[in-house]
Write a structure and sequence with these properties.
Number of helices: 7
Radius of gyration: 18 Å
Structural class: mainly alpha
Helix content: 55-70%
Largest sheet: 2 strands, antiparallel
Length: 220
């Protein structure tokens, strides 16, 4: 039964990946009709489009959380890991479908605008893909097994500290560039050394939670 529920949840995440890719294709055709493969120099959204996009992104995460809740109704720890797994699968398949639909990214180092909450996140495709793959693998192991992950204080310290460092790598460089239109002028340089410093404890936190988790009887 657990495998069947996991398959349905994963199919949902993959479908969400396609929907995300389709929306981005439409946005690129609207804002970059001259070349949908290149979104830099970045063109800021209109205020109305920005509000719509912000709520769409929030709604996507809410849907993933709800599916994780249906998959894991009894354990908050397992639900959180399932949420991370679905988020990771959604993110990875989003890039896969973009590649199929428009041939982008042309390289794993192509720059992308990842989110707009609370400000644009900018970074090479490979960076969020590394995070997504880690979440998908660690969370996926929990989803298809009877492991109750160990989400103790050490887990949260490692996960949040690493996550905040990674978040800073995506949002701080654009903000440090001069003026509110900085991304329109030139692409910010991605701080790889700092990103790795954040990625390591983030990934270790997820692996530790799975490895040191306890076993529970399978619920039909």
């Amino acid at each position: 039964m657990r495998w069947r529920k996991s398959v349905y949840a994963i199919i949902f995440a993959v479908a969400m990946g396609y929907l995300e890719a389709a929306v981005v294709v439409y946005l690129r055709e609207l804002y970059y009709p001259e070349n949908i493969l290149n979104i830099f120099p970045f063109k800021p959204f209109s205020l109305f489009d920005l509000k719509v996009e912000l709520f769409r992104e929030a709604a996507t995460l809410l849907m993933l959380w709800c599916v994780a809740g249906v998959h894991e109704p009894r354990s908050v720890a397992r639900r959180f890991m399932a949420f991370l797994a679905l988020w990771g699968i959604w993110d990875l398949t989003y890039y896969v479908f973009l590649k199929i639909l428009i041939g982008w990214p042309q390289s794993i180092f192509d720059p992308d605008v990842l989110f707009l909450i609370p400000t644009p996140w900018v970074g090479p495709v490979v960076a969020p893909s590394m995070i997504a793959l880690t979440m998908a693998v660690a969370g996926g192991v929990v989803m298809v097994s009877d492991i109750i992950p160990k989400l103790d204080w050490m887990f949260w310290v490692m996960l949040l500290s690493g996550g905040l460092i990674q978040l800073g790598c995506f949002i701080v460089p654009p903000l440090l560039q001069s003026g509110g239109d900085s991304m329109m002028e030139r692409l910010p340089r991605f701080p790889w050394p700092v990103f790795v410093i954040g990625f390591v404890p983030f990934a270790l936190a997820l692996m530790r939670a799975v490895r040191h988790g306890s076993r529970a009887e399978e619920v039909p």
